[in-house]
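Hey L., structure's done. Input below.
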Amino acid sequence: MSFSLAIENGDLAARGDGLGIVFGVDKLVQDLTVWLTEKFGSDIMHPEMGSMLDSWIGSVISSSTKADVQSEVLRVLQNYQNVQVRGIKTTPQRYSLSEILYSIDDIQVLVGYDTVSVVISVSTAPPQSQIANIIVTAAANS
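Output:
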């Protein structure tokens, strides 16, 4: 099973005299939130990480905007799945079933002039599947 340092409001989360950690479905939710809110290509160590959701803020909203945002979210989630598959092939013992993005169940998009909000529902791997709901909002000046 892997873990990550816990993040709250964009900072590392302190827990007592140390740092908090997340694992299982909480790690999956945190990872996906980071992948969706990180600007695509901004991390030179992980160039496949990130999204372009902020590029829709302030742009002309057309009939295709919702579909474009949904496609971008799906691309990011599929990239995350591909990274997990590569990791599972090389070091399967690092992963627990509760942190594996098994299925993308629903992506709902709400587009405003200065915000793009996405509500995502995903499931972890069986036999103890868990459903995780993730809400991501990109807003002007955020």
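The two ends are 33 Å apart (CA to CA). The chain has a mean pLDDT of 87.

-- N.
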